Every structure is written in structure tokens, then in C-alpha cells.
Amino acid sequence: MRSPPRGDDVRITPRLLPVLLLAVSACGSPAVPTPSDAPDPPATKSAGPTVRVDAVYPGASAHVICDTVAVPIEHQMKDLEGMTSLESECRNDGSYRLAVRFKSGTDVNVATALVRERVALIKARLPPVVSREGVTVRNDDPGRFPTLWVAAASPNGTYDAMFLNNYAAQRVKDELTRVPGVTDVRAMSRSEIAIRVWPDTDKLAASQITIPDIVGTVELQKILFEAEQAGRAPAETSVPLTFTYLGRRPDIELFHQTCLKFGPEQTVIRLGDVSRIELAPKSDGFTRVGGRPAALLAVRVIDTKSAAGELRKKLAEFEKTNPKDLTTGLVADLSADRFAVIELRFPTEASAARIQDMVTRVEKLVRDLPGKPDCLAVSESEMSTEIVLVKLSSGDSPSPADLRTALAQVGGAAVRVSNLLSGRPFPVRVAILDKVGHGWAKLRAAGDAVVQRLAQAGVALDPALTQAPGSPRLSINLNYEKLKQLDLDPKDVVKAIGVAVGNPDITDAILDSWWMSHSLGKQFRGANELKKVELKAPAGKTIPLGAVAEVHEFVPEATMLRVNLHPAMVVTADVPPGKTVAEVTAECVKAARAVVPRGFEVCETSAAEPR
């Protein structure tokens, strides 16, 4: 059987969730002075095309994705003609992203075709669920911020965030993707409305009803059970079950009346008798413009000038048919103005309410600066990247130094500030590569040492690792011999595990890899509780999961980066006034090489965060 990461490969530290704040002047003058207004480094000007590869492995950890998806794909790409670098990212949410960069002068269509051919060759060697989900190839640099930002808002508060998100997703998003020059449109918060069920475990036990019984009964009505995103957990300690309808609006009353079984004397036990049921969005992400709820769409384009004009025409058409007190407009154009970026990182245990309160406070601090700059804020659940964008709407905008001073009083979050040069925040990027297999724990220690050295030397502003430490997870190893002895179908066992932890998509991950991991948050109390999950044997008896599986907690890397086929940690930083990106990057590489142990390599890297 495959074993989970060893204890010496992980480091138990509070994970930090990144939150970004974007500042922009909407009046045409520079929002923030850039360091000597120096031109971008030559490497940026002469950069060749970048081809992006995306894949999804539902339920798999970053470690599993790295071994089963990243390694085979990247080895297939390593000798591509004209390729200059490979930089990839594996996340605990099951996502994989690879940037294949080519030398200057390479035809973008040729580069895309070369990558697509290699992906087709390797597909058969990928886990079946990855192939089924699809591996996409497109011409796009995942490291650059989307250029255009569109918002659906309700100035007088007639519509709430849930309505705005659904309106943007159902009415606006698809139309914008058809605009000439637009390559991608991404909703910055989940917009689906769902039913969230909070089972009462005591009532379930008294009624001899299991969570799989609930899921099976509800699914008979063609209602989908979906994974509850881990990350920001509510105060409850039970596991929430999230359901969505196929083409219908969720009906709470239908759920309350759902018959689960007949009790003594033919009394009906309904779902509402043993659960609390609520209507809710499927994630706790939030987006705001000017301090008010709004739905934000991030738009990537080929030619910003022409695409922005076409986009405005399309949005003007929407204004003719939008409901009263609902507006759709272009709220940020990164190509037209100068920007500053503020990054906030919160501890793992920070709740959604706490983070929203903190972001509200930051917005107020920014708006109280000279010029009364306005704010545009975006946040997502941890399973994609957690970001917040803040827009400054005054011509007399503060400098990065002013922002740092104003935000120094913010407690409970790590704060960084950067200019946004060439579409990238924190443009100084240095990678530490593990060339000999030291392991992720030692690689992170080397990255921490580099960050400390750069901060002490003062060669760059606000240096930090892009990868936050991981959060506690559950490792589950099935004993297939015991399963056979007890006549238990592994697929049924895995389904029960998936339902218990609120993630049904783990099925393929655990069956393909022999073990799986799942985020351990406030909604689940730990390994001992999972061991008590009851499995139904053919004879009608119930067997605890702990009798057929090893379950324990561990702390993996939440995000695993690879640069040119090697595990990597990436340090990002901003540029001090009076220096160029190239100058500061060279100084950072030199300083980093002085502190990393033997077996590690330091180099600059062109990829950027967040995605």
C-alpha cells in the first residue's frame, strides 16, 4: 500500500490564507508612484508565449497530484522544442496547473499545438478520474492578474450577494466570453444556491439512521450531493451536507418532508426531524465594490484596448435589460491605470466572519487615507486562492509606503504591499529548488531562511514565501484483506467515508492511490471520530471504520510548486524605490545562495501568484 507523507516531510505550523488587495486610480493619473518609474526588465519585454495546462483530481491531496499528475505530464514536456521553463502548482483542492514557457519568437499557435500533442500522449498514464475530468491546454499566462474586472452591483441594496452572484453567473458571464478578444471569464465567488443539511448525530443514532442513508434517499429525487468546501468552517462541529438540484431552485420544504424511514408503529421519520436545513451558497467567498456586496468577474483578454471597448458595449446592452437597482459595469482596467496591491494572510483558524470583519476594517483604513480612495474587495474560500482586491478611486492616491503605514495597525493578519508592474504583484521572484530529494520539510526550512535573510539585508520589500504551510489533514489507509474477510465492497466503504467527511469526490482518489487525505477543520473533530463511522456489512451488522482502516492526522504542504521538474519554494517581494526589478532580483538571488544548504539551487523565476 502507498503510505502518506512521512512525519519528517511536513511541518506543523498554522496555515496562512492569502488575501490580496488591489489599489487603482480611476482618474488616469498614477495611483501609486512606482520605483523610479523604471521600465520593466528586458526579460519581461522579450518573453515568449506561455501555454497553460490545467487538470483536476477530485479529492486528491497536493502530494498525490504531484506524484500522479505533475510528474508524468512534466517529464513528457521536458524536451519540447523552444521550451525555456516549466513551472507547476499542485493544490490540496485537487487542482493542477502548469505554465510551459517558450523562448521569444516562438509562434504561440505552434507552442500550444506542441503542448497539446504531449498532453494527448500522456493522458492514458494519468489517473482515470483526471482523464474523465479533462486536461485543458490554452494560450494563457496563469501568473498574470486578469486585466479587466466587471461587477454586478445593487447601489441601493435591493439585491443581496447571493442574487448578484447568480445573476452574474447566469446572465453575464457566458455573454462576456463571446466578446471578441476575451479568452477567459472567471467568477470570483461561488454563485450556486444549494441546500445545506446539518445532521444531528444523536438523533440519527437514536433512529438508527446513517448519513449515507440520508444521501441515498435524497439522491433518489435526482438531487446532487456535493462536497462542502473545507477551509472556513462555521461554528458547528457536525459535518454539513450540501445538495444542489438539477435545473431547479432548491426547495427547503421538500427536504424537511423527505421520508427517511418508518419508526415504531409506522411513524414517519423525516429529514427535518433529525437535521437542521438551510438555504445557502455553496461557499463562504465574498466580493464587494465600495464596501457594498457585488459579484465580480475577472476577464482575461488578448488585446486589452479593443477588448475593453467591446466589453463596454456589451455591458451597455445589459443596462437596458437589468432589473431596477442592478448595475453591470467595468470597475477596473489594469492596463489603463497604475495599481498597488496589499496582501493579507490569515491564520487557518480564522472564521469567515472574522476575515470579512478584518477586510471591512482594511477597506475603511484605505478609504480614510488622503484622497478618500475607494476599495474593491474579493475573497474566495481556501480551495481556490483566497484573494481580496481593493481599488483606489482618487487621483491623489497614497504611495505603497502610505499604505504600509496605514495598515501597520492591522492585527491578526500578515500584511504586504506591492506595486503591480506588468500585471504582476510582488514582481521579484526567487525559486529555491530541491535538487537531491531533501524533502518538503527541509525545502520549506530553506525557504524560510531565504525570507529571513532578505528581510534582514533589506534588499527587497516584504519578502515572503508564496506557499502557506498546510492545514491538518486526515490520512486513511484501507486494509483490503479485512474488507474481503468481512465481505465489504471497497467502493461502498469509500462512499461512506466521503459522505462522513463531506466530500464524495474522494472515491477515485482513494481507490486509485490506496490512501486518501481530507482537510481537518472545525466541522470534523479528528481521526478518532472518523474511526467510529459505521459501515453496513452484508449480514446487516455495522462495523466501525477503524476496524478496516488506519486513520491518523498529518500536516502536508497545502500547495506544492515544481520548477523545471524539481520541488520548489518561491519567495516573492516588492521593489524598493530607486531600483529596477532586474537589479533587486539579482541581489535576492545572490543573498539566497549564501544561506541555502548544499543540494538546493537558487534561481529567478517568471511565474507569479496568485492565479
UniProtKB/TrEMBL annotation:
GO terms for cellular component: plasma membrane. The keyword Signal applies. It comes from Gemmata obscuriglobus. PANTHER family: CATION EFFLUX SYSTEM (ACRB_ACRD_ACRF FAMILY), PTHR32063. Keywords: Signal. This is Efflux RND transporter permease subunit. PROSITE patterns: PROKAR_LIPOPROTEIN. Residues 1-31 form the signal peptide. InterPro entries: AcrB_DN_DC_subdom, Acrflvin-R. SUPFAM superfamilies: Multidrug efflux transporter AcrB pore domain, PN1, PN2, PC1 and PC2 subdomains, Multidrug efflux transporter AcrB TolC docking domain, DN and DC subdomains. GO terms for molecular function: xenobiotic transmembrane transporter activity.
